[in-house]
Each structure stands twice: as structure tokens, then as C-alpha cells.
């Protein structure tokens, strides 16, 4: 079926169609993980939680989430994870009856994590569509959302991992901010920060929209008094967004640095337990990951990183007229990309990419040879005549790469093989 024919078929009820396709896109990798449950695990650490054969959902970071949900922050390395996701798993897993199902506590946590992750991904798909419709055309939004259904790491996103919920909260928060419902946006994005520490980066787009809105930047800068008032009005929403991270780091500081022998990081100008643990246990830091042994992992994430860095090219090629609206999201995406490239385990870009709307906007811009100005994110046209029927070669390469590597990644995840 031609891509444009698919777009037209779901155009009448796009959100219902997207929800249905999103459910299917989550059920397929979930079912494959179940079929691969007998695959010998490269790492048996998940069994330390319960002593039973571990679920294929409990791999890598999911083990830490389950451990925190079950026993709290027992180990120092757990500080690298925000409490929102484990607390949610702990609270909701109790509704699964263990005695009648024969599933222990860890198994119930894993099952609830899978259910929440899959449901959140469906919701994130819808919110990506709604967010994109606010700043672009429905056909463009539909293209981005359909591409979103083919993530590079589908197995990870159908397991007990926090990225789908973080994506749902982030997209919803941005959508509310674009609609200028800043207080509600801040509360939703605070929820995102409680799930992942990188949620603090969302203060950038929200503050930008509050200060500049949809006006050209230079026009706003010519009115310094009004700009100053807007800057002051940004303080409460920004404080709300970063509050979960500040609260958790304050708690860990007083728990670990008061009384007894103080560790060296406690005396830092900015004593963050998060940074200390990330560096100590995961070797996270500026260029720490750049070593010959990690070249394969960096190359593996290269397609995602290239799409992120191609945003300026897409903006120029599509002759966008609303760059001042999209700029805060571009800056947010660039900050996240540079963080992944230079100061993190770069291969996690394969799963973190689902939390960044700009990547999918960039892919949608590259997907077709859009005619005239309708390829622009801000084009006024609402039909599908603004692009040619055939996808570009670059987008076909992306789709086939996500399908092939996605299948491989499911096997790797089920067997607890790297990359994480």
C-alpha cells in the first residue's frame, strides 16, 4: 500500500487509527519477548530479586526499577534513578493478585511495568500527533506519528522501562505549553522529571514559550519591560518542573552527607548525588565514554544522532516560516543530543529518542519530497497533496533499519545482551 494511501485511509479518524496501530505495534514485540523467554540469559542478575526464572521484561535498568519498587533505595547505584517510575510500579502492582496467578511480587511489578509502558507508548503516540497538529498540518503530524510507531528499540519499550511514560508526560506537557496552559503544563512536566532526571531540560521550551509566545523574537526583545515581567512569571512554573529532581537530590544529600564519614562529592560546589553515582557506577561524564571499546555502541546510535543533528538542514530545506515557534524545541533536542553524544552511554539514544518530538518531526520532513511550502512544519495546507506519493530513499533506509535492527534488538534484550 502506498504511504499516502495509508495516510488518507486513517485521515478521517486519525487518533483512533493511531491508537489502534500503536497497540498493535506494542503487542508484536511484547509477544516476541514472551516467545523468547526460554533464551539463555547472558546475565542472571534479575534472578537475584526473586530466585525464580526472570521475566524477559527485567533486563538492564528494568532490574533496578524492580529492585527499588520492591525494597526501596537499598544500594547507592539506585540513586541514578528518579523515584517516580518505581513508586508507580510499587503502588499499582499490588492490584495484581499473586496467590491466584502464582506470580511473586517481582513478577507482578514486571507485569505492571509492561502494561504501563505499552499503554504510555500508545498515549505518547496520540500526544505527539496532537502536539504536532498545534504547530503544523495534520498530514505532517500523521506522518511523524506513523514513523513514531517504528522505534529502533521496540523490545525495550514494551518492557518495564520508564521511557514511554516519560515520553507521554513530556509530549503532554509541551502540548499544554503550546496552548499556553502553563501551570498545568508545569505539573505534568514535573511528573516527567519525577520519572527521569532529564525532565529538567523541559524548563527551556516552557520558559521560552512564556517569554516569546508566537511573536517574532526581535519584536519581543524591543519591549524589555514586558519581557522582564514575563521572565518573572516564568519562575513558578520552572520551579515546579525541577522540584522533583531538587527534592530527591536534597534528600540524598542529607541522607549520605550528614554525620559520619563524608564522601568527597559532598564537598562539591554543587553536591549532586546523581552526578556522583552516574560517574562512579556508569562512568558517565564529559567524553568518558569515548574510548576504542565503545566505538561500536556509538556507531550503533549514529542513525538517531544524525537525524537529530539534521534538524537545521530540514528547517532550511522546508522553508519554514515559523522557526520562532519551533526554536525552543530544537534547542531542547540539541541539548539532549549533545548530552547523549558527549556525556552519556551514547547507545541509549536508541530508546531515549522516543522522548524527543523533534527527531520525529525531522524524520517526517525527510520522509517525502514535499511540494511547495507544504513540507514546512507551519504550512497552512491540511490535505495530502503537498507531497509526492513515494517516500524518499533516506526515509526508506530509516524504516528498514528500524525494522531489521528492531528485530535484532528484541533478541538481544530477551537474552540480556548488550547494548542496553
Automatic annotation (TrEMBL):
It is a multi-pass membrane protein. Pfam families: Mannosyl_trans2. Coiled coil: none annotated. The keyword Cell division does not apply. Pathway: Glycolipid biosynthesis; glycosylphosphatidylinositol-anchor biosynthesis. Its EC number is 2.4.1.-. GO terms for molecular function: alpha-1,6-mannosyltransferase activity; GPI mannosyltransferase activity. GO terms for cellular component: endoplasmic reticulum membrane; mannosyltransferase complex. Mannosyltransferase involved in glycosylphosphatidylinositol-anchor biosynthesis. It is found in: Endoplasmic reticulum membrane. Keywords: Endoplasmic reticulum, Glycosyltransferase, GPI-anchor biosynthesis, Membrane, Transferase, Transmembrane, Transmembrane helix. Belongs to the PIGV family. This is GPI mannosyltransferase 2. GO terms for biological process: GPI anchor biosynthetic process. The keyword Transferase applies. The chain crosses the membrane at residues 227-246, 295-313, 325-342, 348-368, 397-415.
Amino acid at each position: 500500500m502506498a504511504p499516502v494511501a495509508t495516510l488518507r485511509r486513517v485521515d478521517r479518524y486519525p487518533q483512533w487509527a493511531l491508537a489502534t496501530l500503536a497497540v498493535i505495534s506494542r503487542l508484536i514485540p511484547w509477544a516476541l519477548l514472551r516467545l523468547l523467554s526460554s533464551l539463555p540469559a547472558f546475565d542472571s542478575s534479575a534472578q537475584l530479586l526473586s530466585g525464580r526464572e526472570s521475566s524477559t521484561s527485567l533486563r538492564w535498568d528494568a532490574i533496578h526499577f524492580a529492585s527499588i519498587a520492591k525494597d526501596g533505595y537499598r544500594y547507592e547505584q539506585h540513586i541514578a534513578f528518579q523515584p517516580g517510575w518505581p513508586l508507580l510500579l510499587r503502588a499499582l502492582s499490588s492490584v495484581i493478585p499473586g496467590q491466584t496467578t502464582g506470580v511473586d511480587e517481582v513478577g507482578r511489578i514486571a507485569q505492571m511495568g509492561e502494561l504501563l509502558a505499552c499503554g504510555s507508548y500508545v498515549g505518547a503516540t496520540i500526544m505527539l500527533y496532537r502536539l504536532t497538529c498545534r504547530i503544523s498540518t495534520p498530514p505532517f503530524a500523521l506522518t511523524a506519528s506513523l514513523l513514531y510507531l517504528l522505534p529502533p528499540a521496540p523490545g525495550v519499550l514494551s518492557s518495564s522501562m520508564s521511557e514511554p511514560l516519560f515520553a507521554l508526560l513530556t509530549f503532554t506537557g509541551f502540548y499544554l505549553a503550546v496552548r499556553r496552559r502553563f501551570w498545568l503544563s508545569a505539573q505534568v512536566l514535573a511528573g516527567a522529571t519525577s520519572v527521569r532526571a532529564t525532565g529538567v531540560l523541559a524548563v527551556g521550551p516552557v520558559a521560552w514559550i512564556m517569554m516569546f509566545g508566537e511573536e517574532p523574537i526581535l519584536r519581543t526583545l524591543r519591549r524589555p519591560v514586558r519581557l522582564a515581567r514575563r521572565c518573572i512569571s516564568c519562575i513558578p512554573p520552572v520551579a515546579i518542573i525541577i522540584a522533583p529532581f531538587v527534592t530527591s537530590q536534597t534528600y540524598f544529600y542529607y541522607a549520605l552527607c550528614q554525620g559520619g564519614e563524608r564522601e568527597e562529592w559532598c564537598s562539591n560546589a554543587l553536591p549532586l548525588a546523581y552526578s556522583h553515582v552516574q560517574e562512579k557506577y556508569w562512568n558517565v561524564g564529559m567524553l568518558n565514554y569515548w574510548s576504542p571499546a565503545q566505538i561500536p555502541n556509538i556507531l550503533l546510535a549514529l542513525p538517531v544522532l544524525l537525524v537529530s543533528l539534521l534538524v537545521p538542514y530540514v528547517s532550511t530545506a522546508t522553508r519554514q516560516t515559523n522557526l520562532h515557534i519551533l526554536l525552543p524545541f530544537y534547542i531542547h533536542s540539541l541539548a539532549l543530543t549533545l548530552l547523549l553524544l558527549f556525556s552519556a552511554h551514547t547507545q541509549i539514544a536508541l530508546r531515549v529518542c522516543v522522548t524527543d518530538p523533534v527527531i520525529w518531526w525531522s524524520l517526517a520532513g525527510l520522509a517525502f519530497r514535499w511540494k511547495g511550502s507544504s513540507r514546512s512544519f507551519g504550512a497552512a495546507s491540511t490535505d495530502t497533496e503537498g507531497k509526492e506519493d513515494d517516500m524518499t530513499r533516506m526515509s526508506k533506509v530509516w524504516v528498514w533499519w528500524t525494522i531489521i535492527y528492531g528485530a535484532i534488538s528484541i533478541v538481544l534484550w530477551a537474552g540480556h545482551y548488550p547494548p542496553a
